[in-house]
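R.M. (postdoc): so does anyone remember the format we settled on? I'll just put the structure tokens first.
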């Protein structure tokens, strides 16, 4: 079954998929299926598309005077690192680890990341179940969902 799902996802033009449609796709897959399809080139495409959309999903009116670098470590077949910088009501994202010290670092597996960014995972529950690890400013991490328009499936 995961191969069919993987084939379907591989064929998707992610740039044409709305956040709500993406949330529905993620909601329809188990954690095992999500982990299974997040392999190779498809994994990179999905991660780059999700992080690429963060700027559009950003809600500057909710960020106020927040000044923070958030480092995301997504574990899976390899560890991928992305950073989100929120400064002066703007959000920028870049792939890779910078030399700057992050205010908070979030570490999670592929399935947990997809559930979190698609509105299908509760960050508090994920943290309590140790599916999401947080280093640094836990209060900032807890409030991150306020700063982004998270789709609902």
């Amino acid at each position: 079954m995961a191969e069919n799902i993987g084939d379907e996802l591989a064929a998707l033009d992610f740039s044409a998929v709305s956040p709500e449609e993406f949330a529905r796709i993620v909601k329809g897959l188990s954690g095992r299926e999500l982990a299974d399809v997040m392999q190779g080139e498809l994994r990179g495409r999905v991660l780059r598309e999700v992080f690429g959309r963060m700027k559009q999903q950003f809600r500057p009116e909710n960020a106020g005077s927040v000044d923070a670098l958030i480092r995301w470590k997504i574990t899976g077949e390899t560890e991928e690192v992305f950073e989100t910088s929120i400064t002066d009501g703007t959000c920028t994202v870049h792939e890779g680890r910078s030399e700057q010290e992050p205010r908070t670092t979030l570490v999670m597996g592929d399935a947990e990341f997809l559930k979190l960014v698609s509105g299908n995972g509760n960050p508090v529950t994920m943290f309590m179940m140790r599916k999401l690890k947080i280093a640094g400013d836990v209060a900032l991490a807890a409030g991150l969902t306020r700063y982004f328009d998270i789709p609902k499936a």
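R.M.: ...and that's the designed sequence above, right after the tokens. Also worth knowing: The first helix runs from residue 2 to 11. The chain has a mean pLDDT of 88.
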